Amino acid sequence: MLIDLAIKLGVCALVLGGVLNFAGMQTWLERKQSALMQDRIGANRAYFTVPWWLGGAPVNWVLRKLGGLGILNALADVLKLLTKEDFIPAQGDKFLHTLAPGLAVFFALMAFVAIPIGPTIHLFGRDIPLQVANVNAGLLFVLALASIGIYGVILAGMVSGNNLATIGGLRAASQMLAYEIALGVSLIGAVIWYGSLDLQIIVERQGHLFWGWLPAWGVFVQPLACLIFMTAALAETKRVPFDLPEGEPEIIGYFTEYSGMKFGLFFLTDFVEIVLVSALTTTLFFGGWQVPYLSPDGFHWPWAHGAIMLVSHLAYVGLGLLSFTVKVVAFIWFFMLIRWTLPRFRYDQLMHLGWKVLFPLSLANLAVTSVMVVIARAGGS
Amino acid sequence: MNSLSDQLLHRIRDAHKRRQLTWWERTYLPAIAQGLWVTSTHFWRNLFLHIAHRVGLFRNLPASVTVQYPDQMRLTASRLRTRHRLTKRADGTPRCVGCMMCETVCPARCIYIVAAEHPDPNIEKFPKSFDIDLGKCVYCGYCVEACPEDAIRMDTQRHDIAAYSRDGMWLDIKELLNPGSRPFPITPEKFVQLTLEEFKTLPQTPPPPPPGGGTAPSA
To answer: CA-nearest residue of chain A to B35?
Structure first.
């Protein structure tokens, strides 16, 4: 019993630590990636030195190099946010104003419990699933939490006692509502195909091969759904080109009246949501933790004619974890690339894209998928 | 006929002649893919070059256009007008003969000269004090053009002029003769008057870097 609890806590710590570190490092990634894309150098000045009794010169040398890479800017950010005055406007509601950022980040983090980060480990006669909670309707759970996450944003806009913040909150509400529908409907096609809402099962079913060489990843089965999902999911993260709730040049956004670490939590929520969206895209459309051609017993290379390159169980688990991480990082990079490439939508364009393009497209995709699945089942039986 | 409103009218009238986007173009997917291609090629190219620079390769290919000011100064144009200086004779006294041409021509009236008789009969006068209020100066360069003696130049390559107050923007004759001799936060005295002997004992600073040079000033 205690050991089970300890294992569960360990998996929790792994997921939470991974997510928060990815989210935190995104401040660095955002600065540096945008700099490289725009032929700049980017943040490279923040560093600190330690006195001799803490290691002195060799440690300072490393710190200086890290500072040159801009990594210590993340620390400087946190230090600044924590020491800033926590300001609550006079017209604002003190309790709700404090609650809003907590709600936003809590639900964004909660959504990770259903996402499988690796295959089940068989160790010392135990089965350890690398998934915090094996929810059998995991996909619904994730979508539900993503929807609830919007409450934090609306609340922040409403209780700030600031008109612009209210507009930001309302924009966030209508935008997320519009894109949530396209997001959900585009996924129904994938769910029909995989025949399950359990994310672990969805990942396992993507381990098959078509014609002996093409992995049965969602992106090959449901390319349109993948495109719609990624677009809608990007809109859910409220970042450029979908950053109308913030809209820095026009309204400052739902967090206008926030400062210090409360603002930092909203910032963190944005980054956690990007990790969430990357993890979901990976899980649903890019094979999750599956490595192409890797089965529990080893690599079945399509050109090896049945020969197997044996892989031990722990190596299999490690490769799975590595595969998931690499894919998530690649998607974080990709979303960051989009964020620094495309300009922001106008509000009517945003609504047009959500309601008149993505929603009908996702419905069409659902209809075509349903017919295909019925035909395939009829042909198979 | 060619007024702006006419042009705008033509534009509205010819709007229907604009090329219609094809269906594929109207999805904006090709344009988005193109944009992502451009930014990602810049990303990977610069990432590769930054790493290569660290190990000393491809130094001739720049990976960024950033100038790391103040460690690295921007290359200035050879004719750029930068902060003023007064040129010196071999003994350290100013070349200026106190003719007041620059003070007269200055449109901002930011030059203040007090002239005195020079002991050498071949030299007319010398400036006891020569002050420029940079807070008023418009960097037109007329003083340089008016000077018959090449006594004032705008070639110190200093363009990072900052001060905590208006008084801090003042350049007295000591600083004009030897740019950089005054430490930054010290507010200068106004209308400092020196004798010829005192000019010779001033701490001398090296001549300014050549125009277009991009080196950091030695601290």
So the answer is: A341
